[in-house]
Specification:
It comes from Methanococcus voltae. InterPro entries: ABC_BtuC-like, ABC_transptr_permease_BtuC. Pfam families: FecCD (PF01032). Belongs to the binding-protein-dependent transport system permease family. FecCD subfamily. This is Iron complex transport system permease protein. The structure is a single chain. The chain has about 350 residues and is mostly helical. The protein has a single domain (about 5-80, about 90-340), classed as Orthogonal Bundle (ABC transporter involved in vitamin B12 uptake, BtuC), CATH 1.10.3470. The chain is built from 13 helices and no strands. It has helices at about 5-25, 30-40, 45-80, 95-115, 120-145, 150-170, 180-190, 200-230, 230-235, 240-265, 270-280, 285-305, 325-340. Helix 3 (about 45-80) runs antiparallel to helix 10 and helix 3 (about 45-80) packs across helix 11. It is globular, with a radius of gyration of 20 Å.
């Protein structure tokens, strides 16, 4: 049995285990027998536990599952675009652009209807527009400089610029015609959260993320393998680099926008999951790296979500932490290690 197959089986078992833990753990623990009863009989026997399981634990688990898959795939596509293992939707500003788009959508709906808009597709559209604007700026900088350090700093600065405008819009929402108090809730959302999702939002996420996962594995992996070897080689085997890179940018932007629209920015998952996939598989083939990355993404994101919950590692009376806290602790050391490991940072 190939190493890749063994890794897929192992990661699938780990993912199943963390999904089960996610359904069980929280302020009010839910037992495995309760979960089995619900699956077999449609109820645990207690209405309160039924509602907790279906309306809260299952939604946040499914949301983390899809968000982890989507953002890890966006990360590997972005790394292929820039040929840089540190490229990440969070670090390169794509998430900040999407957040700015969602906040603009919120202010627009507040000013027109006095109610914060919740249309799933409209939120994704505005998030996508924000992401596209920011990524267009970052890619324009990438064409000017080939230095990875300069590109990373530029991405971080563009991200900071978008975050600055987002903060201004939130705190001046009342002046611009919206309700500032209603917008202030976006601040905690802006640090990442999967605990306020609804099933229709998860349906939209699945509708947008799953087809792109399949398309990327089937239609883009070989071209991504060739792209790693350089422009000259990719062109010599018939790849239209302009069209290919537009696909990478378009899909990574849509995936990032979809995740951010519903969960807020998810930090570092898109960077370190592809890196870990390369390390454990010892192969650069993208038809193997993509499946491994989209298994690792939800594993890490669900674990991070579990760690933020009151009643697990925090006191039951504590406030839930944003996902940025555990994800930064996981991701920052890997980013520092990769940055100092090589002077070239090539893939």
């Amino acid at each position: 049995m190939k190493k890749f197959t063994k890794l897929c089986i192992l990661l699938s078992f780990i993912l199943f285990f963390v999904v089960l833990l996610s359904l069980m753990l929280g302020t009010l623990p839910i037992s495995i027998s309760d979960i089995l009863n619900y699956l077999l009989n449609g109820t645990t026997g207690t209405r309160t536990i039924d509602l907790l399981l279906v309306k809260m634990r299952a939604t946040r688990t499914a949301g983390a599952l899809l968000a982890g898959m989507g953002i890890s795939l966006a990360g590997i596509l972005m790394q292929s675009y820039f040929r840089n293992p540190l490229a990440d939707p969070y670090l390169m500003g794509a998430s900040s652009g999407a957040t700015l788009g969602v906040v603009m959508y919120g202010i627009l709906t507040l000013s027109l209807t006095s109610t914060l808009g919740t249309s799933s597709f409209s939120m994704v559209l505005f998030a996508y527009l924000g992401t596209l604007v920011v990524m267009s700026l970052v890619t324009a900088i990438a064409k000017i400089t080939r230095q990875v350090s300069t590109l990373l700093i530029s991405g971080i600065m563009v991200s900071a610029l978008a975050s600055g405008f987002t903060t201004i819009l939130i705190y001046t929402g009342d002046i611009l015609g919206g309700d500032g108090e209603k917008l202030h809730g976006i601040i905690s959302w802006g640090m990442g959260a999967v605990n306020n999702l609804y099933w229709h939002q998860i349906g939209v996420m699945a509708l947008l993320i799953i087809p792109f996962m399949i398309f990327s594995i089937l239609a883009l992996s070989k071209d991504m393998d060739a792209n790693v070897l350089g422009d000259n080689y990719a062109t010599s085997i018939g790849i239209n680099l302009k069209t290919f890179k537009r696909k990478l940018l378009l899909i990574s932007s849509i995936l990032t926008a979809t995740v951010v629209a519903f969960t807020g920015p998810i930090a570092f998952i898109g960077m370190f999951c592809p890196i870990i996939a390369r390390m454990i598989n010892k192969s650069a083939k993208h038809n193997e790296l993509i499946p491994l990355s989209i298994l690792l993404g939800p594993i890490f994101l669900i674990i991070a979500d579990i760690l933020t919950r009151p009643g697990v590692f925090l006191s039951a009376n504590a406030n839930a932490l944003p996902l940025l806290c555990p994800l930064s602790i996981m991701g920052a050391p890997i980013a520092i290690y990769m940055y100092t490991k090589s002077k070239n940072f090539t893939m």
